[in-house]
Recover the amino acids of this structure.
C-alpha cells in the first residue's frame, strides 16, 4: 500500500533534473512538475504517516545498494520520520505555491534548487549514516544559498554570504569529527556508532554534536540566521523555519543517541539559553520577520530542552517534543506566509490584516500555537513537560521555561494588539496561491490541536461542548449580531438549565453568575449593530472557560479552563477603543499568574504521586483538585503560595492590580460588566477552592492566610482611595472593583464561617451592582461621548432610568440600609467580631466611608448639578442597555428582602468546612451570636424615614427659585482650561493633599522598571549582532569553546 | 609519517580559519576556506592510511580475494572524493555570491555588508 520511502528522495532529485532538461521558456510546465513532485512526495510521506499512526508498526530500515550497514547507507522510516517528512514536503509544496510568482519569473533553475532543498531535508531525516548526514547538510547549505537569492530584498545577498561563511566553519568541524568517529568505530552508521558508545572518541563526537547543534541556530551563534529570516522571501523563510529547523532538530536527536545520556545536559543547556535569550532579544524588535526569526530560535531552544530531558520524559518524549516541534513549525510557516500579505515591515503594518477576518484568525491561531495556549499541541506538551520536570525536582529549569514563555507571549500579544488596534495605509489583496498556504497552516494547526488532545489521554479540549459552542461562533461570523446574541443568551441559559442540579450550593452561585449573569449582560449587547466580528467567539470562549472551571475536578481541567477564560477575556478587552496597552498588560499578568498556577499544580502533582499508596511508578501528571488537601509539609505551603498568587493576579490584589483599571475602563460598554462583574469571580472561585482544600499554611513561620488577610485589607483601602481621585467614571468603577475584591479576599482570609459567607455575599452583590453601574455609566458615556464626570451634570431628568439604577447601585454598594449591601456589611461586621486580627480590621473599616466618597460623586457629578449646554437634547440610554439595569434593580431589592433565599443554603454548605458561627434563619429574621437583622423591617423603616424627610423637603422648598444656566457668569474672562473652573474637577483635592502619598503609582513604577529592564537586556543582547559576517563566525567559535568548557565541567 | 601528514592537515585547517577570520576581503576569505577544506581532506586521507598497503583499486596488482589484507581502507578515500566535490560546489557558490555582492555594493569588504543587524 505504501510506496518505498526512497521514492521521496528519487522524486525530488529526478524532478530537479527533469526541470533542467526542459526548454528555458517552458516555466509553466516546470512549475507544474515542481508542484506535482512535491505533492507526490507529500502523499508518499502521508501514506507512511497513516500506516504508522494506524498500526503502531515498528520503524523500518531501508537498505540501499542491497547491503546492510556499515557497507551501505541505511535509511529509516518510523512514526517520527513519517510525520516530519509529511511536514517538510507539505511545507515545501505550499512554499512553492506561495513563491509561485517569483519561481515563474526566475525560471526552472530556481525550482530545481527548491526541489533539491526539500529532498535534502527529507534525506536528513531519513538517513542513518553520518557521512550521508553531512552530505545532506551541505546540500541544504547550497540550496539555501540559492533560495535566499529569490528575495526582492537586496540585503539578502549579504545575508546569504554570512550564512555560507559560518556553514564552512561548521562543515569543517563536522567532517573532522565524522572521520575520527569512523576511525574509532569502523562504521559510519549512527546505530553502529551508538552501540559502541562515544567514550573512545569523545572529542570527535563533541565536534559532530556541536556542528549539528550550530545548524539549530543556537544563541549566540545565530546572527547569520536572523539576517536570512529578515531578508529572505517569506515563502522561503517559512520553509527555513518550519522544515529546515525541524529536520535539523531531528538530526541532532539522532546524533545525540551516539553520545548517550551523559551528553543530554549539553542539549538542555544550549536549549534553555537559546530559549530565554531568543525571547529576550525578540522583545525590542520592530521588524516582523526578524522577530519571527528570534522566536524560531527560541522555539528551537525549547525543543532542544525537551530533547535534552528525554531521560525523564520517557514514553512522553515523542508527545512532548513532537507537540512543540509541530506546533512551532505549522505556526511559524503560517506566520511567515502571512507576512507575505503585509506590505510594510514594521509590526504595526500588520494592522492591514484587519481587512480580512480570516487572516486575523490565522494570525491569532499562529500566536496561540507559539504561546502554547489551549487547545493547541504546545499546551498539552507544556503541561506534560512542566509536570515531568517538577516530578524530577528540576525546578530551576522549569522556572526558566515559564519565564521565557511569558516573555514570548508578551511580545507576540503586543504584536497582535498592534494588528487589531493600529491603522495601516496598505491594502491587502488575496491571490489564491497565497491564501491557500495560510489556510492550510490554519487548518493544520487546529487539526494538530485535535490530534494532541486525543493523544493526551486527557479530555480533548476540542471535544468539550462549551468550547465547541464558543468556536461555532467563528463559523457564524457572517450572521447579524442580534442573531448571534440571541444564540449566546440561549446557550448560556440552556447550559444552566441542563447542569444546575450537578452543583453544590457554593458552585451553584458561581454557575448562576457565570451563565445567567452573563446572559443578562448579553441583553445589553443587543444595542450593537452590524455583525460585530470577533465579539462572540471571544466572549463565549471566556464563558466556556468559566463554566469549565466550575466543572473541573482535576488540575488539568482546571488549568485548561483557566487559560481559556483568560484568552477569551483578553480578546474581549482588546476590543475597546483605547485598550491596546491595557489588554497587553492584562494578558501578561494573567498568563504570569496562570504559569504560577501551572507550576503549583505540577509541584503538587509530583508530591501527590510520591505519597500514593499504590506505589505507582509513573507519575500521573494530573490530580484531583480535592487532593490538594492531602499535600504534606515541605511542599504544601509552596503550592499554596504559587496558587494564591496566581488567583490573586486575577482578583487584582494590590501589587498585581495595575492591569485592571485600564482593562476594565477602556473596554466596550457591555464588555466592562462582563470582565468586571463576572470574570473577577473566577479568581475568587479559585481562592475559595484553594482555601477550602488547603486551609491554613505557613511558610518560615509566616501564616500565609494571615498575609492574605493583610493584602485584602490593604487592597480594599488603597483601591477605594485610588477610586476617589478619578475623573473618569469608568476608571472610578474599575478602581472600586479592586477595593471590592480586597474586601472579598479579606473575608475569605478571615477563615471563619461568617467571613466566607460575606465573601460569597460579595460575589453576588459585586456582580449585580458593578454590572449595573458599568452599564449605566456606559450608557451615559455613550450618550454624552465622554467619561470625564466633570463634563457631565444634570442628567437626572434626561436619563431618569440610568439615574435610578446608579442610585440603587450605590446604595447597595456603600452598604447603607436598606439594600443588600447592608446585609453584606452586617454579616461582615459579625465576621470581624469573630476574628482575632484587629489592625487589618481598622483598615477595612476605614475603607467603608472612603467608598462612599467616590460613589457619591457618581450621583452628584453626573446626574445632579447644572446640565451642560451640549447635552440638552440627550435621550435616555438605549433600551437594551437600560433593560438589564432594571433587572438588576429588581434583583437587588429582591435579595435585600429575602437574603435567605440563597444564603441560607450556602450557610449550611459552609458549615461542612467551618461549623462554628453559623447564622440562625427564622422566618424573615437572621440571628448571629452578636445580634439580629430583619431585612423587611429595615426596609420599611428606611422607606418611612426617607418619605418623611423627602416630603418635608418638598414642603419647605416649595417657593424656592430654580437656578438656571445663565444665572451664573464668568467674570468676563474665558478660562484657559475650562475643567479647572468646574467644581467637580479634582473634587477631593484636600484629601489628595492629605493622603495622596498613599496612591503614588509605586506599583506601576515597579512593574514598569521590570519591563524596562527586560527591554534593556534584550537591546544590549541584540548589539552582539553587529551585522559583520566575520564577527558571526567568531560567535560560532566562542560558542564552541564555551560549550566545550562547560561540558568538561559537567 | 602519518602523523606528519595529519599535523599538516590540521595546520592547514588552522591557517584557513585564521585567514577567514582576519581577512576582510571576500575573495581572500574564500581562498582561506579552500585552504581549510584542503586541510580537512588531508586529515581524512591520513586517517584512512595504513602502512605498507596499496591504493584501494582492484586490478591486476590487487586481486579481489586478498584485497582485505592488501589495500588501505577505501571509505576515507570515498569520503574525500565526496568532500572535494561538495567543497568545489560551495566554493563556486561563494564566488558567485562575491561577484553579485560586488556588482551590488561595489565592495568586497565583509565589514561593510552590515545593512542587516541587531
Amino acid at each position: 500500500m505504501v510506496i518505498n520511502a526512497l521514492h521521496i528522495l528519487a522524486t525530488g532529485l529526478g524532478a530537479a533534473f527533469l526541470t533542467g532538461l526542459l526548454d528555458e521558456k517552458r516555466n509553466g510546465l516546470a512549475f507544474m512538475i515542481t508542484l506535482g513532485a512535491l505533492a507526490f512526495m507529500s502523499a508518499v510521506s502521508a501514506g507512511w504517516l497513516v500506516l504508522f499512526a494506524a498500526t503502531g508498526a515498528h520503524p523500518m530500515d531501508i537498505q540501499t545498494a542491497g547491503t546492510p550497514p556499515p557497507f551501505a547507507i541505511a535509511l529509516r522510516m518510523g512514526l517520527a520520520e513519517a510525520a516530519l517528512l509529511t511536514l517538510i514536503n507539505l511545507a515545501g509544496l505550499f512554499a512553492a505555491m506561495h513563491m509561485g510568482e517569483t519561481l515563474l519569473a526566475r525560471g526552472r533553475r530556481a525550482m530545481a534548487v527548491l526541489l533539491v532543498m526539500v529532498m535534502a531535508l527529507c534525506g536528513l531525516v531519513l538517513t542513518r549514516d553520518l557521512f550521508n548526514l553531512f552530505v545532506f547538510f551541505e546540500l541544504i547549505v547550497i540550496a539555501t544559498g540559492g533560495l535566499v537569492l529569490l528575495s526582492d530584498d537586496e540585503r539578502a545577498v549579504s545575508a546569504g554570504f554570512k550564512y555560507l561563511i559560518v556553514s564552512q566553519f561548521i562543515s569543517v568541524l563536522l567532517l573532522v569529527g565524522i572521520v575520527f568517529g569512523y576511525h574509532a568505530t569502523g562504521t559510519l552508521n549512527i546505530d553502529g556508532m551508538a552501540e559502541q558508545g562515544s567514550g573512545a572518541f569523545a572529542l570527535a563526537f563533541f565536534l559532530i554534536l556541536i556542528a549539528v547543534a550550530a545548524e539549530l541556530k543556537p544563541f549566540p551563534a545565530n546572527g547569520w540566521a536572523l539576517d536570512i529570516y529578515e531578508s529572505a522571501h517569506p515563502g522561503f523563510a517559512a520553509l527555513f523555519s518550519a522544515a529546515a529547523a525541524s529536520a535539523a532538530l531531528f538530526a541532532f536527536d539522532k546524533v545525540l543517541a551516539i553520545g548517550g545520556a551523559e551528553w543530554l545536559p549539553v542539549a538542555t543547556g544550549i536549549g534553555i539559553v537559546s530559549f530565554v535569550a531568543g525571547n529576550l532579544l525578540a522583545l525590542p524588535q520592530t521588524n516582523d520577520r526578524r522577530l519571527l526569526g528570534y522566536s524560531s530560535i527560541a522555539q528551537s531552544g525549547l525543543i532542544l530542552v525537551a530533547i535534552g530531558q528525554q531521560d525523564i520524559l520517557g514514553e512522553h518524549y515523542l508527545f512532548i517534543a513532537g507537540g512543540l516541534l509541530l506546533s512551532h513549525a505549522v505556526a511559524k510557516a503560517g506566520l511567515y506566509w502571512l507576512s507575505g500579505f503585509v506590505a510594510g515591515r514594521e509590526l504595526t503594518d500588520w494592522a492591514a490584516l484587519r481587512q480580512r477576518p480570516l487572516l486575523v484568525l490565522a494570525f491569532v491561531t499562529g500566536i496561540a500555537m507559539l504561546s502554547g495556549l489551549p487547545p493547541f499541541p504546545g499546551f498539552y506538551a507544556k503541561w506534560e513537560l512542566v509536570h515531568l520536570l517538577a516530578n524530577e525536582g528540576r525546578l530551576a529549569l522549569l522556572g526558566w521555561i515559564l519565564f521565557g514563555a511569558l516573555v514570548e507571549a508578551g511580545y507576540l500579544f503586543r504584536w497582535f494588539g498592534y494588528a487589531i488596534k493600529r491603522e495601516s495605509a496598505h491594502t491587502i489583496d488575496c491571490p489564491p496561491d497565497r491564501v491557500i498556504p495560510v489556510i492550510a497552516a490554519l487548518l493544520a494547526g487546529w487539526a494538530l490541536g485535535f490530534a494532541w488532545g486525543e493523544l493526551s489521554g486527557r479530555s480533548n479540549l476540542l471535544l468539550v461542548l462549551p468550547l465547541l459552542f464558543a468556536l461555532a461562533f467563528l463559523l457564524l461570523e457572517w450572521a447579524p449580531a442580534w442573531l448571534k446574541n440571541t444564540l449566546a443568551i440561549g446557550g448560556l441559559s440552556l447550559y444552566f438549565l441542563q447542569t444546575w442540579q450537578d452543583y453544590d450550593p457554593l458552585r451553584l452561585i458561581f454557575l448562576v453568575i457565570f451563565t445567567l449573569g452573563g446572559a443578562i449582560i448579553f441583553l445589553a449587547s443587543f444595542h450593537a449593530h452590524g455583525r460585530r466580528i470577533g465579539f462572540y467567539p471571544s466572549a463565549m470562549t471566556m464563558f466556556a472557560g468559566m463554566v469549565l472551571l466550575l466543572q473541573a475536578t482535576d488540575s488539568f481541567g482546571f488549568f485548561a479552563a483557566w487559560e481559556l477564560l483568560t484568552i477569551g477575556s483578553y480578546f474581549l478587552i482588546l476590543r475597546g477603543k483605547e485598550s491596546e496597552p491595557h489588554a497587553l498588560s492584562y494578558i501578561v499578568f494573567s498568563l504570569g499568574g496562570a504559569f504560577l498556577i501551572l507550576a503549583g499544580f505540577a509541584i503538587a502533582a509530583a508530591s501527590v504521586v510520591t505519597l500514593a499508596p499504590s506505589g505507582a511508578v509513573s507519575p500521573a501528571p494530573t490530580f484531583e483538585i480535592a487532593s490538594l488537601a492531602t499535600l504534606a509539609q515541605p511542599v504544601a505551603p509552596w503550592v499554596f503560595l504559587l496558587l494564591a498568587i496566581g488567583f490573586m493576579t486575577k482578583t487584582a490584589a494590590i501589587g498585581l492590580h495595575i492591569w485592571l483599571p485600564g482593562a476594565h475602563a477602556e473596554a466596550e460598554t457591555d464588555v466592562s460588566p462582563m470582565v468586571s462583574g463576572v470574570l473577577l469571580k473566577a479568581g475568587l472561585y479559585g481562592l475559595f477552592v484553594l482555601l477550602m482544600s488547603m486551609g491554613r499554611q505557613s511558610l518560615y513561620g509566616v501564616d500565609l492566610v494571615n498575609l492574605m488577610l493583610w493584602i485584602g485589607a490593604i487592597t480594599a483601602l488603597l483601591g477605594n482611595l485610588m477610586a476617589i481621585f478619578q475623573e473618569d467614571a469608568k476608571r472610578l468603577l474599575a478602581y472600586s472593583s479592586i477595593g471590592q475584591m480586597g474586601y472579598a479576599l479579606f473575608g475569605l482570609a478571615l477563615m471563619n464561617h461568617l467571613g466566607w459567607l460575606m465573601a460569597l455575599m460579595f460575589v453576588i452583590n459585586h456582580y449585580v451592582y458593578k454590572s449595573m453601574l458599568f452599564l449605566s455609566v456606559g450608557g451615559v458615556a455613550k450618550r454624552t461621548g465622554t467619561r470625564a464626570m466633570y463634563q457631565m451634570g444634570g442628567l437626572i431628568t434626561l436619563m431618569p432610568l440610568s439615574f435610578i439604577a446608579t442610585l440603587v447601585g450605590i446604595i447597595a454598594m456603600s452598604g447603607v440600609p436598606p439594600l443588600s449591601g447592608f446585609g453584606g456589611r452586617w454579616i461582615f461586621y459579625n465576621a470581624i467580631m469573630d476574628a482575632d486580627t484587629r489592625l487589618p480590621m481598622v483598615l477595612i473599616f476605614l475603607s467603608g466611608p472612603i467608598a462612599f466618597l467616590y460613589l457619591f460623586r457618581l450621583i452628584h457629578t453626573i446626574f445632579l448639578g447644572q446640565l451642560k449646554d451640549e447635552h440638552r437634547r440627550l435621550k435616555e440610554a438605549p433600551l437594551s442597555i437600560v433593560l438589564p439595569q432594571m433587572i438588576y434593580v429588581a434583583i437587588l431589592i429582591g435579595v435585600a428582602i429575602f437574603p435567605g433565599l440563597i444564603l441560607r443554603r450556602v450557610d449550611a454548605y459552609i458549615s461542612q468546612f467551618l461549623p462554628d458561627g453559623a447564622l440562625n434563619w427564622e422566618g424573615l429574621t437572621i440571628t448571629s451570636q452578636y445580634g439580629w437583622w430583619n431585612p423587611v423591617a429595615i426596609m420599611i423603616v428606611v422607606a418611612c424615614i426617607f418619605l418623611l424627610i423627602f416630603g418635608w423637603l418638598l414642603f419647605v422648598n416649595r417657593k424656592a427659585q430654580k437656578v438656571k444656566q445663565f444665572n451664573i457668569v464668568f467674570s468676563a474672562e474665558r478660562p484657559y482650561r475650562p475643567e479647572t473652573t468646574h467644581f467637580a474637577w479634582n473634587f477631593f483635592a484636600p484629601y489628595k493633599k492629605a493622603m495622596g502619598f498613599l496612591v503614588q503609582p509605586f506599583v506601576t513604577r515597579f512593574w514598569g522598571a521590570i519591563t524596562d529592564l527586560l527591554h534593556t537586556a534584550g537591546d544590549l543582547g541584540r548589539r552582539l549582532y553587529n551585522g559583520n559576517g566575520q564577527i558571526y563566525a567568531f560567535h560560532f567559535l566562542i560558542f564552541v569553546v564555551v560549550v566545550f568548557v562547560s561540558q568538561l565541567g559537567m | 609519517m602519518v602523523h606528519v601528514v595529519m599535523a599538516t592537515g590540521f595546520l592547514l585547517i588552522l591557517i584557513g580559519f585564521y585567514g577567514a577570520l582576519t581577512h576582510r576581503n571576500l575573495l581572500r576569505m574564500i581562498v582561506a576556506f579552500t585552504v581549510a577544506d584542503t586541510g580537512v581532506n588531508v586529515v581524512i586521507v591520513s586517517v584512512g592510511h595504513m602502512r605498507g598497503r596499496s591504493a584501494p583499486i582492484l586490478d591486476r596488482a590487487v586481486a579481489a580475494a586478498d584485497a582485505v589484507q592488501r589495500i588501505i581502507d577505501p571509505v576515507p578515500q570515498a569520503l574525500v572524493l565526496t568532500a572535494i566535490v561538495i567543497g568545489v560546489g560551495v566554493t563556486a557558490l561563494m564566488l558567485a555570491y562575491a561577484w553579485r555582492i560586488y556588482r551590488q555594493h561595489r565592495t568586497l569588504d565583509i565589514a561593510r555588508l552590515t545593512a542587516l543587524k541587531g
Summary: Residues 41 and 80 of chain B are 6 Å apart (CA to CA). DSSP finds four helices and no strands in chain B. The mean pLDDT of chain B is 91.
